[in-house]
Amino acid sequence: MHTFHYQDGFLCCENVRLLHIAETVGTPAYVYSKHTILDHFQRLKRALSPLGAEVAYAVKACSNLAILQLMAREGAGFDIVSGGELWRTIRAGGDPGRCTYAGVGKTEDEIRYALEQGIYCFNAESEAELRTIDEIAASMGVKAPVAVRVNPNVEAGTHQYITTGRKENKFGVDLDRVEALYAAIHHEMPSLIIRGLQMHIGSQLTSIEPFVQAVNKVAPMAARLRELYGIEFFSIGGGIGIVYDQPLPAAFPAWWESRESRSHLHIETYAERLIPLLKPLGLRIIVEPGRMIVGNAGVLLAKCLYEKKGESKTFKIVDAGMNDLIRPALYQGHHEIVPLVQHGDDLVTADVVGPICESGDFQAQNRPMHDIRAGEYLAVLSAGAYGFSMSSNYNSRPMAAEVLVDGGTWTLIRARQTLEDLVRGEILPE
Length: 430
Description:
Elements: E1 4-7, E2 10-13, E3 16-17, H1 18-25, E4 29-33, H2 34-47, E5 54-58, H3 65-73, E6 77-80, H4 83-91, E7 99-101, H5 108-117, E8 121-124, H6 127-140, E9 144-151, E10 173-174, H7 178-188, E11 192-198, H8 209-229, E12 233-235, H9 267-278, E13 284-287, H10 291-294, E14 298-309, E15 314-318, H11 327-331, E16 337-339, E17 347-353, E18 362-370, E19 377-380, E20 401-406, E21 409-414, H12 419-422
Parallel strand pairs: 4-20, 5-6, 5-13, 6-7, 7-8, 8-9, 9-10, 9-11, 11-12, 12-13, 15-17
Antiparallel strand pairs: 1-2, 2-3, 4-14, 14-15, 14-19, 16-19, 17-18, 20-21
Helix pairs in contact: 5-6, 8-9
């Protein structure tokens, strides 16, 4: 659940009217609900309590310092994929000793920095990477903790760009090669410490079956590696999907009821099915959620600038473009769009498009929606994950402001970029 709802005709986040935020900080702007973030984190932590599992927040989902600080204060670990994410986590008060560092392309500088900070573990994705970590650790006179990311070749049933556990994907080591690689680490890489085993099969999974299939394939290997090398953890990755097409209460008329809602994987189902498979291992279990925690905790506010009616389509042109939220263009991602001030039954089928000079710049296409008119504000829902963190300055557009709501108060947690920010660091040659 989330805390976005209509009250007295105004869309609110917790107890704050989003119209007030839009008029105060301008648009585009991302708004996050502190209560929703904490509720999702705590629910997952409680559900997995029989395992004593470490919940490591996936920083890539939403990496604002205020969000990371919130996670650190709740006792989260962190799943990072770059030196920059490690730096952010530390800056926000996160413990590097509770950071696992994934990603296929770690640079030598990033590896050195992570070792200097004392991270918990590298999740290595190739033999070449492991040998590089070994060489760098040796040159520093330290031991580097490592785990191998196994690719279990499981079909996650999600978009091709966010599946990560098939043989065709760039991630991880093929299942049948992993144990030989651990033997090579043990015998040939003296500056490495074998700490665990990791997998991650994809993002936005709405069925439990791929998780169960992957754990069943990899858990016996984890048990053998514990016997052979004393591994202490098994990370099962993240990937729990969220509901993107769930309407807000009273936001839509009766036509919505005829629509078939997409399937959803409940936290409790996830825990009930996986705990019996994982508990007998006697290993520390790590999960790495991102979208599940922040996805439905955030919205993108925008203003309708113009309406353009053609022979075949009606366009609602808004001030939020694909540079602000790229998921619809990149993944064909679905986001519900609702007005900040509640409408009646004035429906229209329209494309919601942005100002970017690309035909792929849209937030919705052929969408039945309220007839939001020029000058009115709207909210793109379920935008908390991979929204701002994937945004850019394309078309030389300043990046959006970010706001965190806590009950009846709100705080600006990122100022909107200025035009000077756009060229900061650029140098005109003499």
